[in-house]
Amino acid sequence: TSSGNVGAFRRQEPRRHHVQDALEAVLAGREVKVKSTKAFGCAIHLPNPGEAPVPVKLTFHQHIEPLLQQNCLECHHKGGGGPFALETYKQVKGWAKMIAEVVEEKRMPPWNADPKVGHFRNARGLSAVEIQRISNWVNAGAPQGNPAKAPPQLTWDTDLGLGKPDHVIKLPSFDVPAEGRIPYRYIRVKTNFKENKWVRAAEFVSNTPELVHHTLTFLDRPRWGRREADEPWMPRFNPISVLQGAPRNEYGYWMRRNQKYLRDFMV
User: Fold this and answer.
1) For residue 2, is it within any domain?
2) How many CB atoms lie within 10 A of CB 89?
3) Which of 100, 120, 149 lies at the terminal end of a domain, its last residue?
4) Is 108 found in the same domain as 28?
5) ∠216-3-214 over CA atoms, to 5°?
6) In 10 A of CB 136, how many CB atoms?
7) What whole-number distance in Å separates Cα of residue 232 and Cα of residue 228?
8) Which of 68, 164, 231, 245 has its CA 20 to 30 A from that of 79?
9) Residue 122 has pLDDT above 70, yes or no
10) What phi and psi, each to the nearest 5 degrees, are found at residue 175?
11) What is the pTM of this model?
12) Which residues form the signal peptide (predicted)?
């Protein structure tokens, strides 16, 4: 059985060797200090031939495949950014229990915005009904159903999902080793805008999605001089050193210096 997110516990080298330590303790006549450990890993769907399936009418092609196409296949297709494809029944069947686990824990689809803040347009996520549907299907033995009732297969190409962009910012390339892990790469690029712009939508596209899993993108600005309180403004933000917000000293300074203006903007 699995317990926990395996990705959160992945390391280059193990820090402890519990089995080796236990064997050495037994051979030396010492007490084994760690008698059991909690296993972290992926849930594996192993059908039990002697167990009767739960009598439900949910099937993969009719009820589950449309959910995967709408919420998962953008990354989990061949050549996509996901670590494996979920385009066929055979592919999904092997990951069925893991899929149920990650959607129940809301680790998938990935969406890190805090729902307590409010409603976000185009937010990723499954409804409670959809999550229960996947869980019931897995508990029923993940039946395939009639392939004739499957939705049309999706096709994937290199075109941008948002259509032709108004502006393209290219990042410099860098070499990725064949093995091992690399630290975060911090890359600063200029927008080359001559005036302020409203951004309606943005999309990051990698020419090697099998290597680049995701990016964290921030807007940075040069240090400005004194500005009027009613001008568009935000505290300086250094994502490398302060991932939670603006430097405390600058933000606090602006608050003190313009306290009298802030009262006019309180709502």
Assistant:
1) yes
2) 20
3) 149
4) no
5) 15
6) 15
7) 9
8) 164
9) yes
10) -80, 140
11) 0.62
12) none
Contacts of 33 (CB under 8 A, 6+ apart): 21, 25
Top pLDDT among 258 and 20 is at: 20
At 231, list the tokens: 């001008």
Query: Same domain for 18 and 98?
Result: no
List the domain range (segments joined by +) for residue 4: 1-41
Question: Looking at residue 148, what DSSP letter applies?
Answer: G
Rounded CA separation 116/97 (Å):
29
Cβ contact 149:59 at 8 Å? yes
Determine the Cα–Cα distance for residues 99 and 108; give it in Å rounded to an integer. Answer: 8
Per-residue pLDDT at 8: 46
| Total count of domains within the chain | 2
User: What would you report as the CA-atom Rg of the chain, rounded to the nearest whole angstrom?
Assistant: 25
In terms of domains, do 130 and 86 share one? yes
- Residue 190 in tokens: 């200029």
> Does residue 70 surpass a pLDDT of 90?
yes
Q: What is the pLDDT of residue 254?
A: 44
Report which of residues 248 and 84 the model is more confident about.
84
> Rounded to the nearest 5°, which phi and psi values hold at 96?
-55, -50
